[in-house]
Structure to design on (128 residues):
């Protein structure tokens, strides 16, 4: 986190995100971090998530549910979002550099990456 003063709370937020694969919301991070920092505010969690996202330490995901989700996995990957329970899953697909190059031919500018979301019903919800 170059350029930022060290913060135990920010470090705890980052550590928590790196320890889960659930793509939590700020509220979920807040609930988890409160165990270690009982006096932390939701605003502090939001500020730290925003700083980490701006610094490129985490990803901020817009999954279509009106709430940002966060992901500490920075390697290129896509996501599956269950329309029933809202759970977000990583999809380690084949790299799509060819699609980026093709898109660059079709637009006026430079493609620097993409986000791809798949929507459907997860196995757990299908069983219900």
């Amino acid at each position: 986190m170059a350029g930022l003063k060290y913060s135990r709370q920010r470090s705890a937020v980052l550590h928590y995100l790196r320890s889960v694969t659930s793509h939590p919301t700020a509220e979920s991070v807040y609930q988890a971090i409160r165990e270690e920092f009982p006096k932390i505010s939701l605003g502090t969690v939001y500020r730290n998530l925003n700083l980490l996202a701006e610094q490129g330490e985490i990803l901020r995901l817009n999954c279509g549910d009106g709430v940002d989700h966060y992901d500490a996995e920075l390697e290129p990957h896509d996501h599956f979002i269950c329309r029933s329970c809202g759970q977000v899953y990583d999809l380690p697909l084949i790299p799509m550099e060819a699609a980026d190059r093709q898109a660059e031919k079709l637009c006026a500018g430079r493609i620097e990456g993409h986000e791809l979301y798949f929507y459907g019903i997860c196995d757990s919800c299908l069983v219900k």
Q: What stands out?
A: The chain has a mean pLDDT of 90. The longest strand covers residues 78-82. The helical segments are 8-19, 26-33, 42-54, 97-106, 123-127.
